[in-house]
Amino acid sequence: MDNRTTQRIFTLFGDLLDYPTPALADQAQECAARLLLDAPEPANRLVDFMEFVHVTEPGYLEEIYTGTFDVNPACYIFAGYMLFGESFDRGKFLVRLQERYRERGFEWGRELADHIPVILRFLGTLQPGEELAQNLIDKCLLPVLQKMRSNFDPDAARLNPYAGVLRALIEVLLPLAQEPLDLAQLVVDGPAGMRDREQPFLGERVHSLAQPPLEMEFSM
Length: 220
Prior knowledge:
With 220 residues, this protein is mainly alpha-helical. It contains 10 helices and 2 strands. The protein has helices at residues 3-16, 24-35, 40-55, 58-70, 79-84, 88-103, 116-123, 131-150, 156-159, 161-173, and strands at 191-195, 208-210. It has a two-stranded antiparallel sheet with strand order 1-2.
């Protein structure tokens, strides 16, 4: 997969994990097509997602998105929250991201800088393998996405189409990782101050969020 294709795939995943728009099915189709040769399993998951979008009323799709990513802290769509909870460390993380965005001339609009679709679109502007891109993959996106995915019911692909999108993205990112992923980094004794509520779009598996160790550093 060449660099331009990889960058476009990250941008498309940013679109797929953003609030649904009328372009969502076409974006899923394009992403699947670009992945098909090198990553057929993630491509097939996106085909399933595309087919679901085609047959689902927009209002219901929006309800699923909101129930999955907006109202349940177990799968909140903000990376800084998933890593640090509502803490001073999340604030530092937001500032660092904003600095990097400005250095690269990247406009992130009205969303907070740690909005996962924003981070993915930013990753789509970077050269694969450069230090900043690698840090975002190893120390931000993969830990966060794995944490989010672990909070889905094991049968979630049947219950929630976004489970397949998250799994596809993880499968795309894992071969690019340079540091071993250790989910234990995300677990400490104290909760982040919020407990998730059971939501129909996450299945029945419910977890409490936990802050990662404060020594977890992002050299961005």
